[in-house]
Amino acid sequence: MRVLLVEIYGRGGLTHYTYNLARELARRQVEVTLLTGCEYELATRVSPGGNGFRVEACFYRRSERWTGRRAPARPSRLRRWLKAAEYVLDTPRVVRAYRRERADLAHLQGSNPILVVTLAALKLAGARAVYTAHDVSPLSHRALARLLDQLIYRLADCVVVHSDADREALLGRFHLAPSKVVVIRHGNYLFFRPDGEGDRAEARRGLGLGETDRVLLFFGFLSWYKGLDVLLRAFRAVRDALPQARLVVVGDPLKLGRGGLAACRRLARDLGVEKSLVLRAEYLPMHEVPPYFVAADCVVLPYREVSQSGVLHLAYAFGRPVVATRVGGFPEAVREEETGLLVPPEDPAALAAALIRLLADDEARCRMGAAARRAAEEQSCSWAEVAERTRELYGAVTAR
Questions:
Q1: Which of 133, 298, 359, 395 sits between 20 and 30 A of 149, alpha carbons compared?
Q2: Domains and CATH numbers, the chain
């Protein structure tokens, strides 16, 4: 079977997910061509002999030439519009690749409604298409985003989601046929730690953290729906109860919008927690990620809404318990009192209580961390299992 995998970014969680999926599909005699962004961050990990799939830099090749310089840390609105226009112009290349590779189907990894352009072009060309909805509903309340997502779900031959909650949400909101929506669990992120977990004391020294600090980690793209403002309000109570508590926030602030990062800094200052906050507002290349998880005591996911999160699987890979909100697929992924704690969304008091409890109880934290590690190593979270389920799905779609 020949499959065209489409992942448009070239960096971040979707890129890591797609890389692992492509590698395991190739091991199952699926001929995979991956179309991705021109600055593919895992390029050094891909070799025809070692991985078995081919990567083609397809998207955003013109961006630097259009802007006349390398992209700034926070792209302007104009540059974002230019990139969207460039993506549309790149779509014919996807169709040509589908035909050139004589693919049996295309599999799009989705978290951006703009993918409707590519999906529509592929369907007009007669392609079969699978769409993985990493975010079942757009993490934006704009009517246009919701409409485009609805079109995507209608056009796709099959939609993959990562949890039963996502499936029910998709069926309820978009009224799809139940047979069209398939649950395939998110794979683990053990590939972030190929050489073991790492040395905690060394990681903390490198990040300027003390050995006796109680470290909370908030990781990933900074965005309104992830509830960083809720966490900052909760952290005031945590720091008052445990003066040695430190909050480490790491992530690209682009999705916070204009003034969003400054507002977070202001809130931290107004709450009096600024000196206990370590903020690194930028995207981290993959090799810089592990020390933050090694140094952390627990990982916090105070999201207002979500389908699933790669950050949770990163936490499990490093044996770190999580405190997460009871939204989306989190109640299925977090085993209450076993791998972490669940709290209501937008409830700083409940969040603070859970964090204080976990940071103050060394035995419970270690026990939950060990359970988190075991959860990451379970067969149901292995990429072998994910790829096998996906290969079976491909067979069912092409047989229709």
A1: 395
A2: 2-187+382-398 (3.40.50.2000), 192-379 (3.40.50.2000)
